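Revision sheet: structure tokens.
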Amino acid sequence: MIKKFTLAAVLLSMSLFASAQSKSVTISSINGTNMEQYDGQVADVKMNRYMFTGWNTVSFPFDLSTDKINECFGNDCRLEALTGISGDENEMKLYFEDAKSEGIKANTPYILYFTGEPQNVKITTESTLSAGESKVSFSTNGYTVNFNGSDRIMNGNNIYGIFAVDNAESKFVKIDGTTGCYATRCYITVDGDKDVTFIPVHNEKSTTAINKISADNKANDKIYDINGVQKKSVSRGINIVKGKKIAVK
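Predicted:
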């Protein structure tokens, strides 16, 4: 009787231990994976993601620490997030800033510079899975630019992505309906049907908000640097005077 009870206890313990282990989830970086069934669950994630030398776009339904980013993509890889825009309907600057020290956050669009030879990178990690939307938006001059992460193959005539054959720059160009955008990549959409030329700017803050310093005349007489810090007088570099940028060499 005691032996039977002991055996039952052991089997129960083994069952509880097994159920406590993270389930294994393989995510497709081509067709995409329905994440609703895994939302909020901790899992041993497995994913193969092809990376080209140069700039790639990434958006994953799980977090990756800085150490894990270095392990997967190399210590000298760069990770940047879109933090602002400026321009008009014809030409817009995209301001990207370093985000590697914060790691990759689930369902957040990024650009990642890969220095290795083009290859299939294997990503394995234990993380909480998320089915949330991947998107950041910025507006300027009445136009809104959306940086979207794709959870499936995207096709359309008004989306912009980075072509693998020309990704030395993080230049977003219009994707035609046959090229498409695979899952775990990112693309840009902009309000309106006009073609837009996007210019990437790295690690330089957007000056869009500086135009909103103040509406009164006294404030407009003040001088600011490119980061919005007030200065006593115009000096070498970029100066913001009466809401306009003035470059002094």
